[in-house]
Amino acid sequence: MPLDPHSPVLVLGAGYVGEALLQRLADVGCPSYALRRRFEQPPPAGARAITADLNDPGTFAELPRDLRFIVYLLSPDASTDHAYRAAYVTGLERLLASEAVRSSPVERILFASSTAVYGQTDGSLVDEQSPTEPEGFAGRRLLQAEAALRASGVPAVSVRFAGIYGPGRQRLLTSVREGTASVGPRPHITNRIHRDDCAGFLLHLMQLERPEPLYVGVDDEPSDLRSVLEWLAQMLGAPPPRMSDAGSARGRGGNKRCSNRRLRASGYELAYPTFREGYGALIRAGA
Fold first, then answer.
1. Angle at 117 between CA 194 and CA 181, to 5 degrees
2. How far is the C-alpha of 1 from the C-alpha of 14, rounded, in Å?
3. According to the 3-state scheme, what is the secondary structure of 100-139?
4. What angle do CA 131, 135, 137 make, to 5 degrees?
5. Of 39, 22, 110, 100, which Cα lies nearest the Cα of 65?
6. Are 280 and 219 a contacting pair, CB within 8 Å?
């Protein structure tokens, strides 16, 4: 499905992933709107800027009405249940009820969800059919948003992204380089995806005739955190990670193996299939 040069894409929350997506839209000649609370510099690639806050109901009366795709990439402004509900549930529900959605020729809404919806901590394999029983409010609010999308009747796709890394997001690299990286005594399986593959896959979904309603957005290789840190240490010439009794299978990102089989079956080719390609590129670029 070619992108229409006369029907723009609205990117809500044009931040880390959104900016990369806007650049890709420009590269294929597709016009776009970029919405965020504030712009410290003009949006990339000539996208038309909309300075607005989706917590303000008045915002929705001002949205364009010539949209073909809407990409919902909002992030909460705090790590609280209230902030997650405002960003992912209230904001999305207001968007779905807006004149922009009712009057535009919207073909698809793409919603950036998260693998936080999975509560598995035993290292088991999870995919789109796996049970979603998150313990934290973040996963519960995201599931609530996904359900609101399904019930809306608007064609939509949710993508459950894992930990997003890339230029400017190099927490692991910094911890290894500074010698503060540590691992626990038990395996801790982590999942991730490079920012450029987040943007690339979202663009890919706009061009599919019949995408699935749900995808897990991860790279090819769920990896034990120890293996990742040891590889980074070798590449950086830094000490290996320290052992810490504080490590736990219930740490950041849980302990599960997320499968990208459905993503791969859609025909998308990852630019960074594993952490080695992704972090290797960052290291070569001087990160």
1. 50
2. 24
3. HHHHCCCCEEEEEEEHHHCCCCCCCEECCCCCCCCCCHHH
4. 110
5. 100
6. no
Residues contacting 143, CB < 8 A, separation 6+: 117, 132, 134
* Cα–Cα separations (whole angstroms), residue 81 to 8, 76, 125, 147: 33, 9, 27, 17
Nearest to 122 by CA among 170, 66, 186, 177: 186
pTM over 0.70? The answer is: yes
Element (H, E) at 252: none
10 Å CB burial of residue 172 (0-12, 13-18, 19+) is buried
Kindly give the interhelix angle for 16-27 and 195-206, rounded to the nearest 10 degrees: 50
Query: What type of residue sits at position 276?
Result: R
Closest CA to 30 of 199, 267, 157, 269: 199
Nearest to 111 by CA among 12, 25, 186, 21: 12
Quick count: other Cβ atoms within 10 Å of Cβ 3?
17
Distance CA 20, CA 195 (A): 8
**DSSP label at 4?**
P
DSSP per-residue letters across 150-194: HHH-S-EEEEEE-EEEBTTB-HHHHHHHTT--EE-SS--EE-EEE
Give the rounded percent of residues in the chain with a pLDDT score beyond 70: 97
**Phi/psi of residue 149, each to 5°?**
-65, -45
pLDDT by residue (tens digit) across 74-98?
Answer: 989 899 999 999 999 999 999 999 9
Rg (alpha carbons) of the chain, rounded to whole number: 19
Three-state secondary structure string covering 43-70? CHHHCEEEECCCCCHHHHHHCCCCCCEE
